């Protein structure tokens, strides 16, 4: 059992969730509420990682993370480090690859809230922030939980993008999925089997806990 | 314990709500009206007449291009001077059409949310008190989905009033409940009105509801306020043919001013009608639109034919006879033109007179009821 790989995987999944949920809340709410030109294009861009082959997405990310690419150069000037083959690199890649999993459930949840609930809150004296925290957030909570579950599970299982961007550096970019692949390549089926069972267990527990939490809160808009 | 909003006596006009909103589009508005404290003003008009937009503008949820809204001595909107108060700063109670209760909060917490002006410690008791006043004792812990339509409406009303608003806005509050509940809620609103002395605006497309509840009715069409008056005057003296039609009035005709034996009369077909008011200011030969409330049409008994000495006798043929329970609606057609006269009589009276389609009948058009309409385009 490659505990280091499991630790990289969990760290990656947790940090992706932590960083993506605020983005998902903001983007999901904006896409659900705002009317602006180019909204469909934005939605298509958010959904793109869903339909792109992971290796293709990974390839483009790897290219843009290079120091001679504008984004890679910008990152280097900011941090003094490169992105390819680093944990930061696979984290950024995970953020992009999991974006639709974080945004879409939250967007659907916001879309389900009748617009006049927020208006009723304003007319009751609540500021826009109070309205968000006390009315909107509790109502989209099941969507947030779904987003967390999907993002976490998807990041744990991500293979193609991580391999393209991060390679398999032990303790840095070698996630459990990649470690399983390495074990299979080395004909160590027992090792691969144990790690697969571990990944299956972690994924199942995550989804189970999260859906258990979400299932208790389904509001009927009366 | 909260006080009923605006209960303390104020100087006349101090709590008045005055609204003047104008914009060419995208939703055209040309609305001017006011509502006194304690008064219930119904905004009526067909769908798309701008009723809800006006209400939203007053609440601060819609920003019109030009206008001014004053309430209780405060200016909520004054586009000329760049004053635009946010909804939170307007202290307005709004009951939305579908009540817009927060589904994740109990009835108590729904009301509590509007009590931000009180100390946190006293909010729960105050919320329960408001729910008690709305006869919702014991239901404080229920969620909106566990309440009936009528109970939800009362929670929404409690939440709107809990803020101690300076004006209460009701957006078709009775449209989402069944007929029996509606009547009960309307009765409760009528009773509640005796206790709150703030302007109340009721948006409705139901004329009967407006007549039953409102002190005055304001007729809207295409965002324009056409006429605001007490129901009785509005229905007897609509300002224009358009208003009469919007109020579902029939009996709008066109006649001509003539002089008969030195006296001005209204010529309509072969008849020269006496009119109690308004003819003296018109010149002979002038064409004029006129309206007659159906309450001012009197059917002559067929077994006692008049010899023409009665007031404005007119003879027509029954074109349509519709029995609607205790009342029968009659439509008379005339030889002189396509215009028809519609009025209701008691069904037993229709039977006693042996009325049937195609029969000739004589009616009196009461001179005091004939209302001359200002020159307007007939649409």
UniProtKB/TrEMBL annotation, chain A:
ABC transmembrane type-1 domain mapped to chain residues: 6-211
Transmembrane stretches, start-end: 12-32, 44-63, 83-103, 139-157, 192-214
Membrane topology: Multi-pass membrane protein
GO CC annotations on file: plasma membrane
GO terms, molecular function: molybdate ion transmembrane transporter activity
Protein's cellular compartments: Cell inner membrane; Cell membrane
PANTHER family in the record: MOLYBDENUM TRANSPORT SYSTEM PERMEASE, MOLYBDENUM TRANSPORT SYSTEM PERMEASE PROTEIN MODB
Family: Belongs to the binding-protein-dependent transport system permease family. CysTW subfamily.
Role according to the record: Part of the binding-protein-dependent transport system for molybdenum; probably responsible for the translocation of the substrate across the membrane.
Name by which UniProt lists this protein: Molybdenum transport system permease
TrEMBL record, chain B:
GO molecular function, one term: ATP binding
Domain ABC transporter: 12-247
Record-linked Pfam families: ABC_tran (PF00005)
Alphabetized InterPro entries for the sequence: AAA+_ATPase, ABC_SmlMolc_Importer, ABC_transporter-like_ATP-bd, ABC_transporter-like_CS, Mo/tungstate-bd_C_term_dom, P-loop_NTPase
Keyword Membrane: no
Keywords from the named record: ATP-binding, Nucleotide-binding, Transport
Protein name: ABC transporter ATP-binding protein
């Amino acid at each position: 059992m490659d505990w280091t790989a499991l630790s990289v995987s969990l760290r990656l999944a947790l940090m992706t969730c932590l960083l993506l949920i605020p983005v998902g809340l903001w983007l999901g709410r904006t896409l659900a509420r705002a009317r602006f030109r180019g909204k469909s294009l934005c939605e298509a861009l958010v959904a793109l990682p869903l339909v792109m082959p992971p290796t293709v997405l990974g390839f483009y990310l790897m290219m843009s993370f290079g120091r001679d690419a504008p984004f890679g150069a910008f990152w280097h000037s900011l941090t003094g480090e490169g992105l390819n083959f680093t944990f930061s690199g696979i984290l950024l890649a995970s953020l992009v690859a999991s974006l639709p999993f974080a945004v879409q459930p939250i967007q659907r949840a916001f879309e389900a809230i009748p617009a006049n609930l927020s208006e009723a809150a304003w007319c009751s004296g609540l500021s826009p922030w109070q309205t968000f925290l006390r009315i909107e957030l509790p109502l989209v909570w099941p969507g947030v939980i779904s987003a967390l579950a999907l993002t976490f599970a998807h990041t744990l299982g991500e293979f193609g993008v991580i391999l393209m961007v991060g390679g398999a550096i032990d303790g840095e970019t070698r996630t459990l999925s990649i470690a399983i692949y390495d074990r299979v390549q080395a004909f160590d089926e027992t090792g691969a089997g144990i790690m697969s069972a571990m990944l299956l267990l972690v994924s199942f527990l995550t989804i189970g806990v999260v859906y258990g939490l979400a299932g208790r809160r389904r509001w009927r808009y009366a | 314990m909260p006080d009923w909003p605006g209960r303390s006596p104020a100087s006349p006009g101090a709590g008045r709500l005055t609204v003047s909103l104008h914009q060419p589009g995208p939703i055209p508005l040309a609305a001017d009206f006011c509502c006194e404290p304690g008064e219930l003003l119904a905004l009526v008009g067909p769908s798309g007449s701008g009723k809800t937009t006006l209400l939203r503008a007053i609440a601060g949820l819609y920003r019109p291009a030009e206008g001014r809204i004053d309430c209780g001595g405060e200016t909520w909107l004054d586009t000329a001077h760049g004053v635009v108060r946010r909804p939170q700063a307007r202290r307005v109670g709004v009951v939305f059409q579908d009540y817009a209760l927060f589904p994740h909060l109990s009835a108590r917490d729904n009301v509590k949310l509007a009590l931000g002006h009180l100390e946190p410690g006293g909010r729960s008791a105050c919320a329960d008190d408001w729910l008690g006043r709305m006869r919702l004792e014991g239901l404080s812990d229920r969620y909106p989905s566990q309440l009936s339509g009528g109970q939800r409406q009362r929670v929404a009303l409690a939440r709107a009033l809990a803020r101690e608003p300076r004006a209460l806005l009701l957006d078709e509050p009775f449209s989402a409940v069944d007929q029996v509940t509606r009547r009960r809620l309307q009765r409760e609103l009528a009773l509640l009105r005796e206790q709150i002395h703030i302007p109340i605006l009721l948006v409705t497309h139901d004329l009967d509801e407006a007549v039953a509840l409102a002190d005055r009715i304001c007729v809207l069409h295409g965002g324009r306020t056409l006429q605001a008056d007490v129901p009785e005057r509005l229905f007897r003296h609509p300002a224009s043919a358009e208003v009469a039609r919007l109020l579902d009035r029939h009996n709008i005709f066109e006649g001509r001013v003539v002089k008969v034996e030195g006296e001005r009369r209204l010529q309509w077909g072969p008849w020269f009608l006496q009119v109690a008011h308004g003819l003296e200011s018109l010149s002979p030969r002038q064409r004029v639109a006129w309206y007659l409330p159906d309450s001012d049409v009197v059917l002559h008994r067929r077994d006692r034919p008049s010899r023409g000495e009665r007031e404005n006798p007119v003879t027509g043929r029954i074109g349509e006879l519709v029995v609607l329970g205790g009342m029968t609606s009659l439509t008379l057609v005339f030889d002189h033109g396509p215009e028809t006269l519609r009025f209701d009589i008691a069904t037993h009276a229709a039977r006693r007179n042996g009325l049937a389609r195609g029969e000739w009948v004589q009616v009196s058009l009461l001179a005091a009821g004939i209302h001359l309409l200002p020159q307007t385009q007939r649409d």
